[in-house]
Amino acid sequence: MTKISDRLDYEILDCGISKVRLAKEIGVSRDLVSSYTRKRFPEESMQISVLKSFAEYFGKDIYYFCNDYHKFMDTVDVVRFLKRLRQEKGMTQKVLADELNITTAIYKKYEQGKCRLPYQVYLRLQEMYGPFEEAGV
Q1: Residue 16: which residues within 8 A CB-CB, separation 6 or more?
Q2: For 94-114, how does the pLDDT look when each residue is reduced to its tens digit (9 = 90+)?
Q3: What is the rounded CA–CA span in Å between residue 46 and residue 44?
Q4: Domains observed in the chain
């Protein structure tokens, strides 16, 4: 099972609880739990804090319901990471932005921490530079 929705469905069935009860016990809406169990719900839109709450509730590793993007966003200082990556590659913000097919203005917002790094940009960075360790490049 690689999809978060599959893991969540499995744990709900294995514990024999309803989605309504799970939602109530971790303090989220039943609609949110239902959304997260839909196979087509975009995983990158799932809140890390909620996924960690599921893991705690089911007694799993804290990142059991998270994918690599969630772990990266939760464990890496993205601002420092982007700046260090860019500097190690000897690039300006404009050059890296061009490589990522985004505007320099948007890239600057990621590097300044004013905007969250989107999943698609994270994937593009991995495509360009390979998988990242949790601690950095």
Answers
A1: none
A2: 999 999 999 999 999 999 999
A3: 6
A4: 4-67 (1.10.260.40), 76-129 (1.10.260.40)
